[in-house]
Amino acid sequence: MYFLYWPIFLKLMMRMFTPRYFRPKFVFFVGFIIIPAILCFRLIVVFFQILDFFLFPGFWRIEIKQPLFILSNPRSGSTFLHRMLEKDKQYTYLSLWQSLLNSITLYKLVGFISALDKKIGAPISQIVDAVDRHFFKGWDGLHKAGLRFSEEDEFLFVSSFLAPGLILFFPYLHEVDDVFSLDNLPVKARKCLIKNFRLSVQRHVYATGGNTFLAKNAVAGGRLGIYQEAFPDMRVIHIQSDILRSVASSLSVFSKPWSFHSPACYQRKYESMSVIEMVRTNHQGIINNRQNFTPENSIDIEYDDLVINPEKTVVSIYQHFGMPLNAEYKARLVLDCIAAKSYQSVHEYTIEDYGYTNEEIIQHLADKSIQNLLCVA
Questions:
Q1: Which stretches are transmembrane (predicted)?
Q2: Is the residue at 1 inside a domain?
Q3: Residue 119 CB coordination number (10 Å)
Q4: Residue 272 domain-assigned (yes or no)
Q5: Which domain covers residue 54, as residue numbers?
Q6: Is residue 92 part of a domain?
Q7: pTM for the complete prediction?
Q8: Strand partners, 68
């Protein structure tokens, strides 16, 4: 990725100091802790990525064949499906720490430290567990997260300030809407993103043994064209779901950090528009790019079908793509589906909780769609 894409980064920084958003706690936490930490972290990772070319020069020549991507609206079952598929050993996928430390050299270093840690009683593992409990407790019951859990490829882009996931830190992201639609960036910028996204996946596949790359993302619709150019033979599972339900659930998840670093924005209608716009651009991006996939490389599944009968849904995916379904994984799938059916969510979300009505959201989506059509015309 870019170290930084300055046009977007500067827009993010400038709005932090406007009268609407300038609050000491917000500026201190995001401007003087989060952003410098991301930049320092980015410097370290880039250094090790450069080392990869010298220590593992063959990684960039490996061919990534038919990577499998799960796409959906946010909060629409993509994590649920991914965590069922990831147990099939034919796949390799990103855990959170791997998406943050996207370097073969760092993978090897982490593996060495992990092995050493086990021999001395696992004190580092205990620290990692404590970090997970502290930083991810806000998502308990919503989205099981942690450094060692599988996660979206979003964090490959966050460190360059080129991802909708930045909404966790910037409640005004809808004012910098370039970040929602990277496919619309200038040609030179897109080519750089395509090249570096391909290298990111090659690093991971090389380091983990060369299996089929499995990924999921619920906010990547605006850069799906970049994905397709990086991997023309990519396969896609699209989970179709109720966009209003997705908006309500997304507001509950992505606005959580705002209550800490910018409480003045928390549950306000204007800032909540960032989440709504993120869901809209993702949904519209998937629709706009559907025609670019051959029928044999894409499949649509319904969210309700996935929840009601996950085993049947997974089997239909394997059949559609002609992928082998071995006995070991099939047995594991049966057990996972039994456990999934016993799970009952205790969370219910409504648009009204955030000051909207369904009619307002529908009208916004309709107005934006008309604007997009006029721009294309």
A1: 26-51
A2: no
A3: 7
A4: yes
A5: 6-376
A6: yes
A7: 0.92
A8: 214, 235
Bridge partners of 236, per DSSP, are 69, 298
Which candidate, 146, 176, 353, 336, places its Cα nearest to that of 269?
A: 353
Token pair 């063959």: residue: 58
Tell me phi and psi for residue 95, to 5 degrees: -90, 170
What is the C-alpha R_g of the chain? 21
Percent of the chain's residues with pLDDT above 90: 65
Whether the CB-CB separation of 272 and 107 falls below 8 Å is answered with: no
Domain count within the chain: 1
CATH number, position 99 = 3.40.50.300
pLDDT tens sequence across 110-161: 999 999 999 999 999 999 888 888 777 655 555 677 888 999 999 899 988 9
User: What span, in angstroms and rounded, lies between the C-alpha atoms of 242 and 315?
Assistant: 23
**Residue 70 lies inside a defined structural domain of this protein:** yes
Strand order across the beta sheet in which 212-217 lies:
91-93, 212-217, 68-72, 235-240, 298-302
3-state secondary structure the chain: CCCCCHHHHHHHHHHHCCCCCCCHHHHHHHHHHHHHHHHHHHHHHHHHHHHHHHHCCCHHHCCCCCCEEEEECCCCCHHHHHHHHCCCCCEEECEHHHHHCCCHHHHHHHHHHHHHHHHCCCHHHHHHHHHHHHHCHHHCCCCCCCCCCECCCCHHHHCCCCCHHHHHCCCCHHHHHHHHCHHHCCHHHHHHHHHHHHHHHHHHHHHHCCCEEEEEECCCHHHHHHHHHHCCCCEEEEEECCHHHHHHHHHHHHCCCHHHHCHHHCCCHHHHHHHHHHHHHHHHHHHHHHHHCCHHHEEEEEHHHHHHCHHHHHHHHHHHHCCCCCHHHHHHHHHHHHHHHCCCCCCCCCHHHHCCCHHHHHHHHHHHHHHHHHHHC
